[in-house]
Structure formats: C-alpha cells, structure tokens
Amino acid sequence: MLTVEQNQRLTQVGAGTPMGEMLRRYWHPIAAISQMKDRDTLPVKILGEELVLYRDLSGTVGLITARCPHRNMSLVYGIPTECGLRCAYHGWLFDENGQCIEQPYEDTENPEGRFKDKIVTPAYKVAELGGMFFGYLGPDPVPVLPPWDLFVMDGVMREVCFAVVPCNWVQIMENSLDPVHVEWLHQNMRNYVMDKLGTPEKKRDRQSHQKVGFDVFEHGIVKRRVLEGGTEQEEDWTIGHPVVFPNILKSGSAGAPAFQIRVPMDDETTAYWWYRCYTEVSGVPIKPQALDEIPYYTAPVPQLDPSGLPQWDVLDNNSGQDIVAWISQGAITDRTHEHLGRSDKGVVLYRKMLEEAAQAVEAGEDPMNVFRDLSVNRIDLPIEKAKLRGRAGNMAKGARSGNTTKYSPILKELDRAAN
Ligand code: FES
Ligand SMILES: [Fe+2]
Questions:
Q1: What is the domain partition of the chain in residue ranges?
Q2: CATH class of 31-136
Q3: For the whole model, what pTM was predicted?
Q4: Mean pLDDT of successive 10-residue segments in the chain (419 residues)?
Q5: What's the gap in Å between 299 CA and the centre of ligand 2?
Q6: Which residue minimizes the CA distance to atom 3 of ligand 1?
Q7: Would you say domain 149-418 falls under CATH 3.40.50?
C-alpha cells in the first residue's frame, strides 16, 4: 500500500518529476522505420511531450517539439526541405537541433535582425536499431543505445505491433512481475471467454503456481515459477525470463521471442510496442526482412463500456486480457487501497528498484542499464525454450491465438504459404 504522495512519485512521467527524470536517462522506441516509408512526419507523444519525427530531403531524421514556436501550428503538417522541416503556416524552417534557420518574411523585411538566431525549439536525439527509431529526451552526454539481443540477432523474421493503452505505464510493468495472474486471467478468464464465444475447444488447462521467484540480475529482474506437477529442474525455474529495467519484458519462447516495451506517453497513457522475432514458423522457411520493411500493425484495445457487453472477441487472447486488467485498474491506479500478498513480491521488488533508480538520478548517478561505453555489440537476455510447462517450444502455432499475434500479417501470410 502506498501513500498518495508515493503513488504520484511512482507514476508521474513529466520533466522534473522523479520517475520522469529517471525515464529520461533511457532511449525509448518511438516508431518502426517502416512507418516512415510513405510519410515525411509522424506525431510522437512521449513522457508528456508532443513531438514530431521527420525526415528531411537529405535523409536526416529529426525529433522536435510539434508546436511551432512562432504561433503554435503543429509541425506534423510541416514540409521537409533539404535541411530541415518548414512550418506550413508562415514558413519558418527548423533543423534537427531545433534551431530556426529561416524566417521568410522576417528575413526579407529585416535581414540584419537575425531574429531567427534567437529561436530554438526543443529537439531530441534519434537513433535507429533493429528497424525501430529510438528517441532520447535526457541530458548530455547521450548514453549508448543498448543492443538488446532481439534488436540485433541475425536470420530472424521480425514484426512490430503497437497499441495506445489508456493507463499509466507502472501498472503495466507490475503485471510483468506478477506470474500468478497467468493461471487466472489467461487460463480461467480465457476459458470463460471461450464459452462466451462458443469455442470451448480452445480452452486451456489451468496450471496453478506452486512457487514464484524473482532475482535481480545485472539488467533487471528474472522471474521464475514452478507449476503444479513441475520441478525446480525445469526451465520455468532454472532459466525464467526477464524484465529488463526499466520498461521491457522479454517473453514468448525460443521460437518466437518478443520484447514488450511500455513507453509512457503521459501519466495516463502508454505506448505499447510488441517487437517479435520469429526463428521458426511451422516449418515454413524464415525470410528476414530489410530493416525498413519490418511489418508494422496495430492491436485493438478493449473499450470499457459499463453499459455494453464485454468485447469477447478482443478478450480471447493474452494481450486483450492483460489490457483490460490494466485499464480497469483506473488510468492511474489508486495504490492507497491495495492489499499486497505473497504473490506480489515481484511487484514490491520492482517498485523498490524504480525508487532506487530515481534516487540514483537525483544523486547525479546513472541508473541500471544506462551505458556510457559498451564493448559488446549484442547483450543476450535469458528466455525459456518453452514458456509454461507442457506448452510447445515453437510458439508459432501456439502464439496465434495467444496474444497480438492473432492480428499478425506475417503469420497470416505464412499460414497461406504453409497450406
Ligand atoms: S506558426 Fe509556424 S511559422 Fe508561424
Ligand atoms: Fe498477462
């Protein structure tokens, strides 16, 4: 249970707040590169800031405040030039550093005035990795963008799925430190949904948790479990899978590992990225894509409509079930009334790590996973070959109705090829 003040400290993401400053020490995904293939600008909301990602005619990519500092027209409507983005309203031109480099009328009427030199709009660093654009909103010096394994592994087929989830990012992360919910939300509730959908054959056996464990390792927390009938010799316990501090879950299986990355858009909204790598799909050969051609798609988000029936067809997969759990906790869940039990020890550990990281930043130190120099070009993270006892190691089949892969264009295509 937290006080009102502790809950605010935990959940606020704006500039100048403890967690907002902590989160500003990390690179965060802001778009799939393929999203920029047919467009010049893209609105990006992150950590309470409204930005625009753009590519100018020379190929330079910039990330600047969306609101034009002249009279506030959105630069999402901006026009790319050879060396920046020009506001559509009166033609002021900005480079990737946010510097205004042209003001057509001002330059004509008063060329000696150099008014433009005084105009600098907030601009942030952008980098590319694994087919994603990442943004860094923190202070200099800019840290290294970490090469987490899935972003750099060879010979895999990738896809990027996205959703805007209307709740605070911490309650989403807490779900990743809460293994016991799997047997209830993703087995018990799922079975209820299957009955509602008239597809009882798709029910899952409930596998109850006998033991859950959480270990801090150099990049975050590894979570482990022993399920009913299982032993501590199985990979669910010996390997487990990690939460990479502060906001990435590595999940899936050896056949289709995925990162689930939760990037706060503001205190009450989270950008959710599923970044999945297929290493095998039902015997169909894998065709790795060019990094700018990784398919991007969106997942539906259940709507809470107290007067309507639940949307059973959106609730038939893990992601839909998880999202409805998070958003029904409230946009920023009230932790002054919770009652944590033994199953919540991972949640308690994660909150403690967030607080320690915020304090490190307040003390002028780097929190976990901020790298200043890196001698490796790939950071490997553990994952079980088969998540959950008795499930197939190759996620390809099992994953289809399991989560957002239900909506995957890649799997639809591969299914067609296989049949
Ligand atoms: S509002 Fe952008 S140039 Fe005037
Ligand atoms: Fe879940």
A1: 31-136, 149-418
A2: mainly beta
A3: 0.95
A4: 97 98 98 97 98 98 98 98 98 98 95 94 98 98 98 94 98 97 95 96 91 97 95 93 97 86 98 92 81 96 88 94 96 97 97 98 98 96 73 44 82 74
A5: 15
A6: 90
A7: no
